[in-house]
Amino acid sequence: xxxxxxxxxxxxxxxxxxxxxxxxxxxxxxxxxxxxxxxxxxxxxxxxxxxxxxxxxxxxxxxxxxxxxxxxxxxxxxxxxxxxxxxxxxxxxxxxxxxxxxxxxxxxxxxxxxxxxxxxxxxxxxxxxxxxxxxxxxxxxxxxxxxxxxxxxxxxxxxxxxxxxxxxxxxxxxxxxxxxxxxxxxxxxxxxxxxxxxxxxxxxxxxxxxxxxxxxxxxxxxxxxxxxxxxxxxxxxxxxxxxxxxxxxxxxxxxxxxxxxxxxxxxxxxxxxxxxxxxxxxxxxxxxxxxxxxxxxxxxxxxxxxxxxxxxxxxxxxxxxxxxxxxxxxxxxxxxxxxxxxxxxxxxxxxx
Length: 352
Known about the structure:
16 helices, single chain, 5 strands, 3 domains, mainly alpha
């Protein structure tokens, strides 16, 4: 089945199926990475983990040694502008596969060292993504990160989503609650204890010790920044819900996008939820196998744009700009009004 630009009817090629560039998923190759990775297909993931680990260890040590606000600010900007997005993408894959041959070493590097540098206590991502989100499938009251009842073009609704679901208190409360709901009481106790201790340690260092500058930039502010950017991540991947089948298609797919070339194919989010056993390198081919289902249910596909751009365009009410990126499985163009209506229909609160 062929894809077409919605407005013009021009044929579209999915570049990820023909010349995927996985080298752009990381910043630089690390010597010895191949000896650590369990599956060589995951070598780009391993390079990015090691990129982030090297940066984190050196940069955090410099901030703690110097006790400098200037270095602290430089560290925080570099961490979130360069590394954080890629880290969350690879962390998503880390939750689904065994990346390191030695899993304990992998947990130390990726979860203990890098995760804590972003204010993510042990177990945070696994609980939220695997136990809560995949099992709950964005269903309101089951998946506590659900976007179903929100008007997803409203900044005020996003603010409520952030402060309720992704603030440190809200996130820890929901994570412990979902563990208990699935009878994982030991995990609930372990995670809750680790999270409370980490938050307390950050506040204590900033408020009561002479290392408060380093604690501020490398512990307390990352907790707050990750809270905001984590909320944006959850919102932007699940704010287009199919109005006819919102619990079957509760995301959208991006093609010919930096979300794939720089983020381990994270743009194929509908594919990931529908064909959950696919390796991240196989998501583009999985996308092609789903096109007939997409055609039947009118599933949203966009090209040439990434998730952050989509969020900004929605909040700025630039629906016509976003409409130029829509792709369809049906030949023949559509009017701009039709495309805008289609976009906005996917942003309304779900009524089931």
